Amino acid sequence: MLELFLLRHGEAEARAAHDSQRRLTQQGEAEIGRAAQKLPTQLSGLIHSPYVRTQQSAQLVLQHSQAEQVISADWITPDAAVSDAIDQLQALEGTWLLVTHNPFVSYLAAQLSAISVNQTSFSTGSLALLAGAQALPGTLSFAWK
């Protein structure tokens, strides 16, 4: 059984030398603090993109939840291929959190749950739960948290 929480990073600075270096704003930190309160206190793992804003979001979550594993993964960046992510996620069991970006997270949620991408638009700090036997396209149930 898999519980896959999807969290879009908190609000970030509008500009930085490179998109990957944008940091969370105070509002973004507050958004993640609110989302973290909705997560279980124990996670099988937490996977975040290597971008600064997702690293910061993950660190804020870890102030509330413990994770057996913490992984930085370039297959969940803003322009990553959803099919590559699904290949990586298929082996997961337990309760996992992905800290990632839009538009990637919206497309991932839509593919895994077989609902319209229009129904999965993630604002900053948004948290959703996908649950089911295995992370395969169209097999997980979707719920906003």
UniProtKB/TrEMBL annotation:
SMART domains: PGAM (SM00855). InterPro entries: His_Pase_superF_clade-1 (IPR013078), His_PPase_superfam (IPR029033), SixA (IPR004449). Gene3D superfamilies: Phosphoglycerate mutase-like. Coiled coil: none annotated. Pfam families: His_Phos_1. This is Phosphohistidine phosphatase SixA.
